[in-house]
Amino acid sequence: MEKLKKKLGSFSFWNWVIASIIFRLILIYFPKNLNLSSRPEVSTPLTSFRRLAEGYWLKQSSMSPYAGSMYHGSPLLLSLLGPLTLKRIEGQPNHLLYSLVSVIADVVSAMLIRSTGQSLQLAYFRSLESLDLVKQIEGSEVHSSGDVAALVYLCNPFTIVACVGLSTSPIENMAVILCLYGACSRLIPLAAFGWVIATHLSLYPAILIIPVIFLLGCGPDSPPRKLFLQRQQQKGVLNQAKLPPGFSWGPIIHFAFWALVWSVYVLVLCGISLKQFGGLWEMFKSTYGFILTVEDLSPNIGVLWYFFAEVFEFFRNFFLIVFHVNILFIILPLAIRLHHRPCYLAFVYVAICSMLKSYPSVGDSALYLGLLGWFVNELSDMQFSLFLFCGYVGVSLLSPVMHNLWIWRGTGNANFYFATAMVYACLQIVLVVEGVSAMLNHDRKLRSLITGKPQDSKS
Amino acid sequence: MALLRRPLLLLLLILTHQFLHSWIVFGSVNEEGQKQEEFFEELLLKPLPDRKLLTHFHFQSSAPPSSSNGRHHHLFPKAISQLVQKFRVKEMELSFTQGRWNYESWGGFDSIPSSNAKPPGVELWAVFDVPQHLIDAMWKNLTHTLSGLFCASINFLESSTAYSAPEWSFPPASGNLRYGTLPREAVCTENLTPWLKLLPCRDKAGISMLLDRPSIYRGFYHSQRLHLTSTGSGSEGLDPGIILEQTLTVVLLPNSQRASLARASEKHVQPSWSLSSIFGKEVSGKCVLAETSNVYLLLDRGLVAELKQLHKENEKSAEKVSTSENNWTNPSFELSAKPDRIFIEESSLLSKNPSILYKFEVEKYSESEPFDLGLTWKIPVVWLCQQAPLHASRFLMGSGNERGAIAISLKSTQSSEGFVGANFDDERCELQVDVFQVVPWYVKVYFHSLQVFVDQQPKAVSDIIEKIHVSPSKDKVSPGVMELVLKLPCSVTSAALTIEFDKGFLHIDEYPPDANQGFDIPSAIVSFPNFHASMVFLENDSLNQSPLLSKFQEKSPVMSYTEVLLVPLTTPDFSMPYNVITITCTVFALYFGSLLNALRRRVAEEERFLKDKAAKKTGRLPLLLSKLSGKLRGRQSEPPHSTPGSSSLVNSKLVFKVILIAGLARVEMYADQVEGAGKRSVKERLNVNSFDNSIPRRQVTGKRQRQDEKWEHDLYQDVPQVSNRKVDARDLRLKLQKKSLQQVSQSGRGALSGVRDLRDKLSGTMNPQPVNADPPKLKSNAAKPARRSVAVETSEPEPKKAATMTERKKAQQKADASVEGFLQSLGLEKYVITFQVEEVDMTALVHMTDDDLKALGIPMGPRKKIILALESRG
């Protein structure tokens, strides 16, 4: 993966961007979008285009879009994207307008990732400078992590498939990235808006509030204060001015205020659009309720569908709780260990959510793989990167084959497909664990550089 | 006295008889003003174009509204009237059908197919006379009642996923309607018998005598239907009047052996039949309770037209209708019975080809002269039944188990007469078609994907579909319902509706046992509200006497059911739940554990540890030990200081710890033993007290006791150290031997025991034998003694044999005194097990009272026996 990134980085950034856009457009012009929109990897019950169209149709025929269990998305998405499911331009592919929206969303996300990455790198260098470590770093090759991340996001086959497959995940991803961008560049209303929209669309980004608070409170990259103290004790001088600013509550209160404003705004809009139907309660029940109770058992790349198709009914609630708590329980330890790198914390949260969420799709994987690009420099020592790369390629080739064997040919059975989902989950676990330990090692290296044990830096 | 009483009784009998008779007469005649409970039985026979015969039994019983609450019914089935009263059913129809009505060859326009052609399986609909919120509860209760009444799984219609509430496309449209089908329900005689029980004569008399089960179920199609309408429940205190209509429609292929023999060359000749040839039975008179009992033979319009044509061609004396004795002949066919009446259909529109109805009254026949209608064709005829304007069929599209599409195709039947029925001006001639489709929830229909094709051309949905009502399916809650009104141009030759769906994935519990067979989508109903099937036979006086004919007269919309579709769904692996649970949980544990581990790892310390380890290359053992000790302390310890002494220190520490733990265990065991011994002592005391120092047949059930013995054994084993290989190999056996030895030693020969034990220990295998000789006598556990006895025999030394013989004798005596022997002597061997379970030995038995034995579950007789025997012994 690293090699790929390096290769990408050496080309001109904009050429790659244009190439990826053109590639998308070519795919869009294929008949029926290559049937990507009905792939289980792309369209989950939450992101499916056909369900969106069904919801819009129901709403147009003056029924609640949540009547029946077809649509589980946001009513706002219905009002914004719904008309595009029907609009057709003569002589053009059926869903051209909708696909163009997805492409634009992807490009905007990539640009936001790029600028966030740049500001992140800037902050990183600044903190190195403040620790007088710049000259140690200078020796090694430094990539522009913003460019790399943007290109990884744009050229990732997962992103392309999710975009061409007409799922709504490009929009959801854009909201998440908007939130992080706003927090990094200290545009608090934007960050709050991104966070509220992302939470509204898919619930799981709600836990991003922790990295966002750290981002706003301490800035994108703040080495622990302890390091400074150690450093200055070594020098024997206590320069108060050079200490990084501590945790500041001002922006967070600001953020809370804006988050409240935006969520009230969003709820009011939803309430208006659902006024003649079931109202907000119905919306919560069939969006968040649907996410949390894993009602739909159709296969996807996660592991929960098969588990809940097989598990005994009286254990169902117990396991629902256990699996959701798995996400919640790891929040605190991660926040403690990675609080000085909020963007990395955000990446880990996004990765964990996309691994454990009830209806994962490749669009979610595309997001965290893109964010991973921010940390090319820090994670250059990561173990198993080749293994992970091969694993991702292998799973994305095997999973459709197994699906075909099971569903279409009837020669395989569900276990085959479930096995690939299992492998995929394990790969993601390895990625997260190795990523976290590589980042911790990197921090350790920095600390040892500061505390002046040059012999340790190599190990 | 007796003589006196008899005439009195006789008198009384006569009197009551008189009274009863008059009462019965009164009951049957009733007051002039009030209506009667009535019963009609009728049978319609109709030849079908494809050499088959339609037989349609029609029974109608009616109960007028009455004021009394718990009234008595003369004719009307009480079960039905109770059901109507309880569930406030306004109208209800239940049908059991096997086979599919062949609309193309059996016709789709008459009132018979449009009201009697039903979808396969069970169909139930009901209209209730209750407020909206109570309807579902009423429906649920109704399904349960009906399922009990008709021995069918109608109760499956109870769940909300199985029924729906059509708004307007189902003909008796009203808001209080519930509709449900069970396409896969198998219909058999079990369902017919309760249906017949509702008839006053059952199948013992009248037309229903013809209902011969094998010939009915041999048919190509049979549909047994029950329709009830309740009227006049408006006024208070008045029970509703109910009309119960029971029909049985059977399509049979007459057994035409004779006909084919006679005219083998003629292919088109219709088979001749008679009632006795198709049902194997004849009608011997009517059911006495029936008002009318008629058999009709219907020649439909197409057939009549064809016959007329033939007559014209033949140019013979066409109207030569001869009636010789019993036969009635026509140029084209011959009837074996003379019709009592001939009706000709009165219809202004179709006056050229009216259908003809022959009426036969069963009343005139009796047991001596049974009614057996037969029809013999003289000339071959080919005709077509009248079709519905469009022929509807339905099929699935797509392959694979992920998604598909349902297509309903409507093809014009080109029946010119069909369109005459609808009076449209030619300018904007439109054909209205109602479609009612229910899909189960696991077929997830995308209603936005509805497409309409007219004459193979895709049309805008809004042009063709005038009205649409959809209630989308909710997962595991309700089925999807689609009601459409299509306006098709009259010139249409074909139209098609397609709608896409995704196949759902179910939980493993939701699959039926034969999951791979697939799931059924119930029939769609296609109706033509502008076309009415009605036949009017203008015979004013007799019409009100015949419910069948008045049924014909009713204007019912033409309706047809489409095929049931079989949708295969993907199945998960049913054998996997445990594997899936464990594997998934393992993955989650892997995630959680490894992530936490990565977070809490302190690399610096580990590095230092490793470095130190590398620095001193001591042997493997100290390293291992240090690791072990580190683990024992529960945290990463600092590496041992490099002297070799430290390792020995650790070693000594370890040894100390092991010893400490062993000591603790020892103390605990000792405590256990003491406790166990205390427990045992009571029993042993009892043993001593008993007249016989028999070996207590103590079954080793307590785990603790076994532990004790094991411990003892181990300890003894340790002390002598002389145990050779042989003993080791037979360790288990030895253990068992020792166990019995202990028992003996504890049970009275106490003084010797200590000495003996020691001796045993020292002499290894030799000494246990004398004691060991009796275990084979213990029958209490079957398997072990056998093995043990083998062991004994192999190791039994020669000189000891005499001694063992005496021991055995003794044991025999003891056995006599044992519970088993005691019970055997009383002939109560079967209770031995009861006593064994309760661990009652002879000692205890002696002290048992009547109540104790009762508590054991010994019946009275044996109990008394035992007590008596014990008393006599004592």
TrEMBL record, chain A:
Belongs to the PIGU family. It is found in: Endoplasmic reticulum membrane. Pathway: Glycolipid biosynthesis; glycosylphosphatidylinositol-anchor biosynthesis. It holds the Pfam family PIG-U. This is GPI transamidase subunit PIG-U. The lineage of its organism: Eukaryota, Viridiplantae, Streptophyta, Embryophyta, Tracheophyta. The chain crosses the membrane at residues 12-30, 158-181, 193-216, 252-274, 286-308, 314-336, 343-362, 382-402, 414-433. PANTHER family: GPI TRANSAMIDASE COMPONENT PIG-U, PHOSPHATIDYLINOSITOL GLYCAN ANCHOR BIOSYNTHESIS CLASS U PROTEIN.
From TrEMBL, chain B:
Residues 693-712, 760-805 are annotated as: Disordered. SUPFAM superfamilies: SAM/Pointed domain. Residues 1-22 form the signal peptide. Keywords: Signal. InterPro entries: PIG-T, SAM, SAM/pointed_sf. SMART domains: SAM. PROSITE patterns: SAM_DOMAIN. Residues 814-868 form the SAM domain. This is SAM domain-containing protein. It comes from Hibiscus sabdariffa (roselle).
